[in-house]
Specification:
The protein is α+β, with helices and mostly antiparallel strands. Helix content is 15%, strand content 29%. Strands 1-2-3 form a three-stranded mixed β-sheet, covered by helices on one side. Strand 4 and strand 5 form a beta hairpin. The longest helix has 8 residues. The mean pLDDT is 84.
C-alpha cells in the first residue's frame, strides 16, 4: 500500500513512528500538518502530530521498541507529548 502525499503536504519517513496503538508523526521542517492528515486515511491506528523544535527527525530522539515500550530523549525533541 502507498500513502499518497501531494503538495502542499510534506511527509518524511524519519518523522513517523508506528506503534501497536498509535502512529506518532513529528512536525518538523520536512513534515507538515497536511502530511499528518494524509497518514490518517492510511492507518487504522490513531495518528498524533508531535510538535518538535530541536530535532531534524522525530526518530532522532524517540523510538518504539515494542510491547508498548519506547525509548526517548523528550527534552531533546522539544515536545511534551512523550
Amino acid at each position: 500500500m502507498t500513502v499518497n502525499v501531494e503538495a502542499p503536504a510534506t511527509l518524511e519517513g524519519g518523522d513517523v513512528m508506528v506503534t501497536d496503538a498509535v502512529v506518532f508523526v513529528g512536525l518538523t521542517t520536512r513534515t507538515n500538518i497536511k502530511g499528518v492528515e494524509a497518514l490518517k486515511s492510511f492507518f487504522k491506528q490513531e495518528v498524533i502530530a508531535v510538535p518538535t523544535e530541536k530535532v531534524f527527525h522525530l526518530l532522532s530522539t524517540v523510538n518504539y521498541i515494542g510491547n508498548e515500550n519506547g525509548c526517548d530523549s523528550s527534552r531533546a525533541c522539544g515536545s511534551s507529548v512523550f
